[in-house]
Structure formats: structure tokens, C-alpha cells
Amino acid sequence: MSVEPASVVIVDDEPPARSRLRQLVGDLEGFRVVGEASHGEEALELCNTLRPDVVLLDIRMPGVDGLQVASQLAGWESRPAVVFTTAYDEYAIQAFEAQAVGYLLKPVRRERLQQTLEHAARVGRAQLLRIPGAASRTHLCVQRPRGLQMIPVDDVLCFQADQKYVTAYYAGGEALLDEPLKDLEDEFGERFLRIHRNALVAVAWLDRLDRDDSGAWLVRLKADFPPLQVSRRHVGDVKRRLRAGG
Fold first, then answer.
1. What's the pTM?
2. Are 28 and 112 in contact (CB under 8 A)?
3. Mean pLDDT (the chain, rounded)
């Protein structure tokens, strides 16, 4: 009984690097390249469509970089094993010491690639955790009926939790995220302020703090958006941020 080759997607913004990896993978038994992407957004679209077993992922790319792509993939129910390819060794310890599926320095050598891909294939669709030391995402990747949508984090007004799901409200709409509010707070803590056990508000969109007729505290945003309730324990934090200018 033949075994289906493991599917591989190559992501790199440099065509010569993609070509070399494609040739190297093509020479290895048990693996096949099913797609290539030149930037992070294209990589996410491709992974969503092809559901590869392994992604060979460059780290430094313009726009959505490799670390952000891996962070997005970490939240997917069906996710590939990620092998990073980079010309820089500075990320190795801080980013992958505990969670690495693979980390290859360019120029990638055939023997090392084979060993790493075989390990990645054994890992399979392993659960990736948030990468330690990675910068926070600049975009949220949301699965829509017609494909993926990239929402700039700068456009997000607030996150509100309801049981296991979180809704991101942004300039132009809303999106359901399958991420805990606490994880979003940990990642974006400098840019978002907790105002309630179930809500984070973008500091940049804070306008003022009011009290309603019942004495409840409400925060108002610099946008056409309903005021949000502030719990008593978080009122002081909101006041301090407003006094500091957001």
C-alpha cells in the first residue's frame, strides 16, 4: 500500500529562494510541493485552500511576516507543521526553543532539509502555540464564506467576549474570533485596555469616561459605536489612560 507524499507549501518573498526550495523538496522522496506564496497574506490564503501538511516559511517578509503567519495558523483547527527558513539566526532561541517543529538557516542544505521535513511529517498537524518572543500581529486573519479576510489591528475598536467566542468590532464591521480574550490581552496589552471581564478597548480609540443616570461608568469611543460599560475595578485604569492621552 503506497503512502501519499506529504504536501508542502513554500513561502518566501524572494523567487530564487522559492525556486531552490522547490528543487530541493522535489528531489526528496515522500514530499511534494503543492503551492508557493510570496508574502504572508498569500500564504494564509494558500494554506486555507490547500491544507498542506508542512509549510516552509520565511521569517522576514514585507507586510505580514513569517512569525505573524505562524501565529495565525496556530489558531486554526486544521493546521500544518511549520518549518521556518531564514538567513538570520537571531530568532532561533527566543522564538523556537520550546515549540520548534523546524528551523533552517539559509542557504538550506539538502540533508538538513530532509531531516527537518521528516520530523515535521511525523509531527503532522501538530498544535502550534503562540510563538514566544514574537511581535504582536498587525492583522487579524478571519475566515469568511468566500475566503480569508485580513483586518488591520489598528482598525479594531474593541474585543468583546461571549462564552468561548470573541467578537472584534472594527471600522467597517465585525468578526468572530476563535481566540480567548486573555490571549488577545496578552498579545495586544499595550494597545488594548481591559475595561470589563468581557471587553478590551483600543487605547487609540478612547474618547471619554461618563456615568449614566444609574451611576454606571461608560466609556465612549472616537467612533460611531455604542458606549461600553466599565466595571468598577477597571475605572481607575481607564482614567489613568485618558489622563495620559490614551
1. 0.61
2. no
3. 85
Using CB atoms within 10 A of its CB, is residue 26 exposed (0-12), middle (13-18) or buried (19+)?
exposed
Residue-wise DSSP of 149-217? EEEEGGGEEEEEEETTEEEEEETTEEEEE-S-HHHHHHHHTTTEEEEETTEEEEGGGEEEEEE-TTS-E
CATH numbers and ranges of domains, the chain? 6-123 (3.40.50.2300), 153-243 (2.40.50.1020)
d(CA 129, CA 50): 22
What nine digits make up the cell of 246? 490614551
C-alpha distances (whole Å) from 125 to each of 116, 188, 191, 211 are 15, 27, 32, 50
pLDDT per residue as tens digits for the range 71-115: 788 767 677 888 888 887 665 544 453 345 778 888 999 999 998
Q: How many residues does the structure list for the chain?
A: 246
